[in-house]
Amino acid sequence: xxxxxxxxxxxxxxxxxxxxxxxxxxxxxxxxxxxxxxxxxxxxxxxxxxxxxxxxxxxxxxxxxxxxxxxxxxxxxxxxxxxxxxxxxxxxxxxxxxxxxxxxxxxxxxxxxxxxxxxxxxxxxxxxxxxxxxxxxxxxxxxxxxxxxxxxxxxxxxxxxxxxxxxxxxxxxxxxxxxxxxxxxxxxxxxxxxxxxxxxxxxxxxxxxxxxxxxxxxxxxxxxxxxxxxxxxxxxxxxxxxxxxxxxxxxxxxxxxxxxxxxxxxxxxxxxxxxxxxxxxxxxxxxxxxxxxxxxxxxxxxxxxxxxxxxxxxxxxxxxxxxxxxxxxxxxxxxxxxxxxxxxxxxxxxxxxxxxxxxxxxxxxxxxxxxxxxxxxxxxxxxxxxxxxxxxxxxxxxxxxxxxxxxxxxxxxxxxxxxxxxxxxxxxxxxxxxxxxxxxxxxxxxxxxxxxxxxxxxxxxxxxxx
Length: 466
What we know:
alpha/beta, 6-stranded mixed sheet, 18 strands, 14% strand, globular
């Protein structure tokens, strides 16, 4: 039975077939070298790191490495680690090969922002929570259920969000959805049905979110931006604007928190205009050098819609997110969700509720906070050593950093990264069409690689910085 390991060493997709892990690993490595996915000189993860990623004994990986060294596929030197050997072209390889199109090539290293370390998903704890949840679940839990979501999860979320993020949440005002974009899609439909013509967005952010609102029939004007963040004082001048989407606790991608005076100003605008603030709290659990910045929703639960997700703290594949809604909006949202998609997966909701109640979620977040902080510190130190002209910012919280480059170097750096199999994005990727350009910069998702892939990814990044 094949086992697909999406994260291995240099973030390659290797397929280990059969039950003999050592033989499967050796076959996968040979094929990766033959196909060119592992280039000559590529450093492989240590046997300890790879064994941890694969969930097998260290000796299994060490033996596989040793045999491949003996065959000439790999080299091993003291102090240099294990690397792909430099080999002549195989005799049976065609003399004239069509080059692999760069757009479809799998990157060797992935430092794009937006994804946690998927290899760190707490499989054993999640399995225990799943078993306990299914053992105690009633028969009716497997029916169509309440469009708002399982009551067990909504109750657990209300307790957790109040404790961890300062959110005023009642279970009956929480709607569980299948990801942030799903929740935003439902909100866009409700806003349009209410007669709202426009929802303002930040000048830099995920284009997907503005597109979701636009598909709901809303205009999406971009607010101005300065060194203190989004300039919310411009909201009253936007005709027909009935909502604003913000990442107030940790602006994406620049990383700052909205200052207190602007937090108060955006809530005052919502009160005076009857509008709504849509708060995207996408990575609110991860902060390092500052006191936690509470959710904006705490300032006025009747004018702020809070949106949270497990995609950054656990894994996006779970498709679990939630909205905490004002009283006047909860029933409308429930009715719309019931007609579009009645409920998210009940077993996953029950498992997540158990995960929250048992304390496993808190333990996982604490462990990942320490891990990501170490990576962030390593990133800052490496950039300072290899590219002193590059400034690192937006690092007090979250899962990414912004590397401000010398003027005119963003595009050349991105081209160099692509040539070296390094997947990264510039800050211009997140700019709204009407927003003014920002200084050249890279957005580095330091949470994305596995522990075994992180050293190689960091080394590759430092190699392309100007």
